[in-house]
Model the fold of this input.
Amino acid sequence: MHYQVTLVVVALIFIGGVIPDDSLNQNPGIVTRINQAGLDFIQENAIERLKEDIESETFDDISGTVSAVFFDVDYVVSNIRIAEFEVETSSLKLVPGVGLEFTISGGSVSLNDVNWSYDGGFFSDEGSFDTTVDGLDLDITLGISKNEDGHPVLTPEGCSGDVGSGSIDLDSDSWLSDLSGSLEEVLTDTVNDQICDIITEQISEYSDEVLSGLNLKLEVDSYTEVDYSLISNPLFEESYMETAHKGEFYPIGQSDWEVPFSVPAIDTTGGLNKMVDIWISDYVINSRYYVLQELGILTYTITEDTLPSTLPYGLDSRYLAHIIPKLRQKYDKMPLEVVVNSTSSPTLEFSEDGATITEYADLDAYVVLEDTTRVNVFTIALTGHEQASVGVSYRNITLEMTSMSVDAELKHSEIGHLNTLMIQHVVDSYIKSSVLPCLNEIGKQGFPLPHIDFVAYVNPVVSLGKDYILLESDLDWEVHTHPHE
Done:
């Protein structure tokens, strides 16, 4: 049975929040919280799924002996299948220091076509009946922890139930109808004894299935994956739930990769104006930059074919004669190739004023000789400064570069002194016409937020602070992936 309470908890794990255990010497890369409004949203939808799923459950057969006036009668009640489950009120609440409490009040369980039979020695009979057991109250305490792999583990830590009574009208003219009161009592006791077992068993089985299959490492591109594993057990407060996620990038399949800088502490004051808050440290993105740098991915080769058609010049010694006259004097009518190689991992810094990215690279210019041999003619050190706005698209954090400037400094030349100001003008033109659009195309793809498949972020609001961005959002079921479908 796909028990929806488990889905509730799965949702919370992925859109819950982050405060690490005091015993851990590690700050989380991602900090999130879900408040009571978020729990209410999930619970309202969860109870409908619960009502559907529990209708397929059965109780154990009942057998016993009742005493008649002069003899004993053995009876059996079987096929005790739930036909309908109704709930008057329900809630999903936080239990500080413990976990979550799922409560049902005023529930009822309808049982149809329940089979009965009796054997009194010289006589017997059988038939069926319908009944409804009213006054069902149920409390389930759910604990969430992490295993050694950082996966969430859900454990039903307690369940208490109480039911009222049901009436039985046996479908028979038999004198056993006079003993229906005895059957009502044993049937009510059976529902009372087994309803908790039915629910907690399904929670355990389904949570094991779902949680063990959760992919906490998501591939972002062909080179990197992000690790959203838990670094501590969830924390439950009066007004919100918190969990701690690592939030670090690795090369794909290399989770033992070491990033040589620490995660800054995030100021998580404020928030809780919407159902869920997610704080993301700039460490998360900087760890990706570091991996790309170490893998040698941040290298770009510019040739004549890669230049945008809008540039008024080509990548040839003739076209650059007015900028670098000595280049044409030594290598007339020769094609050029430019290699931009990142020399240090880019850094991203969030602040209240926005997002700033700083990049360091060498620009190596090569002349391509007739035999295709490349000759390095000069090297320029570049320092790029970019301002970016941060947004949310579907389930991804996105970046849009709003401005970019580059400082150029001559590092090496085989053709004498160069006018770096003129070269910088060319570089600036290329950046505006080609680099910025390319970066924004990548920025639109962004990187994935922690999520579950059937829940969407609604009306997200993004704000920035020192070393972090804060996403505040409400939640809704996605139209095409609603769990009830």
